[in-house]
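Notes, p. 3: input format for complexes.
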Amino acid sequence: MKTVHCASYDILRRHGLTTIFGNPGSNELPFLKDFPADFRYILGLHEGAVVGMADGFALASGQPAFVNLHAAAGTGNGMGALTNAWYSHSPLVISAGQQVRSMIGVEAMLANVEAPQLPKPLVKWSAEPACAQDVPRALSQAIHMANLAPKAPVYLSIPYDDWAQPAPAGVEHLAARNVASAGLPSPAQLGELAGRLSRARNPVLVLGPDVDGARANPLAVQLAEKLRMPAWIAPSASRCPFPTRHPCFRGVLPAAIAGISQRLAGHDLILVVGAPVFRYHQFAPGDYLPAGAELVHITCDPGEAARAPMGDALVGDIFLTLEAMVESVRTSARPMPEALPRPAPRADEAGPLHPETVFDVIDELAPDDAIFVKESTSTVTAFWQRVQMREPGSYFFPAAGGLGFGLPAAVGVQLAQPQRRVIGIIGDGSANYGITALWTAAQYRIPAVFIILKNGTYGALRWFAGVLDVPDAPGLDVPGLDFCQLGRGYGVRSVQAADAASLRAELARALAGDEPVLIEVPTLTIEP
Ligand code: TPP
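Output follows (528 residues plus thiamine diphosphate):
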């Protein structure tokens, strides 16, 4: 007779979840017993890095990723990273080992008391099966829940004495199931939307991360070209849904109510696709919409649709809806928008480099299909202006701003996309939250390139301190960090590049190789 252990591995295998990101403890060992040869275990040294790696893997592959954490302590360590996974619609199937069933009540060591409550509200579904025989079914439910629109993390706590129990009769049906969303709006809804777009005098497109998640970038390009629409990236961008040197590309909208209305002034129809309306950050009150503008929102997430403060929304499949729109609208007679001018190079003196220079060197050397994992908070605007991104899946940034994403996600993305090169661009503040991912990159020889921008400070917070009028805040500088020593300590080849020529040489050498490399670059602080 099959065990719960065997039936559960069958289900994971059937869904292609053969990579397990984890950090084990005693509660998890029975799950890892007789580890099947067709599975691989990717060990992270801290659960923040484990969840960050899995997040990168899920985002870059478009598939669920399986995580195994240690009880409550491991779950707690991973929760900062879960904030990003939640807001990026990342389908993480997170399992955590629980004490044996008879020892949970007495709160023996490693009992995860009220386990399903612990990761809320950062998971779509959370459970501990009521008996061992329900574990395979609950695992199947977890995988489908994570992968159905809107994709999201889920959590399953599993007592460790369950694995050796016999699986229930009929368990084989679970691995055979297909569960899919069918989310095309009705012909009437599509007709109305196409009519509004065709009637608009001066429409504008605002694109969010779920366009990239749906691999609908080429459809967004076709729609923008047909309607001669400028295309903005929705604020707090965590992915790149539109090629950044296309004539229609306009850049990333500011994350403020007033700033968005100013940038979109003059448009009569704002079509937002695959983003919340909107993901604001700094509080700058004002009109939600420019005068005379209507807003229409296409989203895969009912929560996003319902909580928006303005506009009409249509909840459906982003790829299919955009495809239908491209077919429905006629090519406009308006002139095509003009491409943005390329920013001029910065003149560098001796000493720390302008981040803009670093980005120009990256733009010069990165392969056309390079993937950038970005976590340097003060340099976002400069990066989008200077680094060309062409292909879907080219950019990942922490979707909730939860630092500790960059280094681990770069490792996970590189694992998911071995044929593309991943360049992590990480601030010297951010790097510390996920630094142990370097060890995983070294041990599994995952050839991501990590460029650490060392400006000695929390640059974005220095800017925010000005916005919030807190000129004297303590705790904003991070001097005395040597990332080359840290990198070597974790087993990664690490070099410093103190000027543009050595950065060019080191980046070229790293991209020509097949091992992880860390490049520390002393940089100046700029306004975000
Ligand atoms: N802790 C977490 C987990 N997430 C956060 N976003 C913060 C703290 C607050 N925070 C936002 S930006 C920032 C901090 C600490 C500074 C990041 O500094 P760095 O990576 O050096 O980038 P820079 O702003 O200098 O480009």
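The chain has a mean pLDDT of 97.
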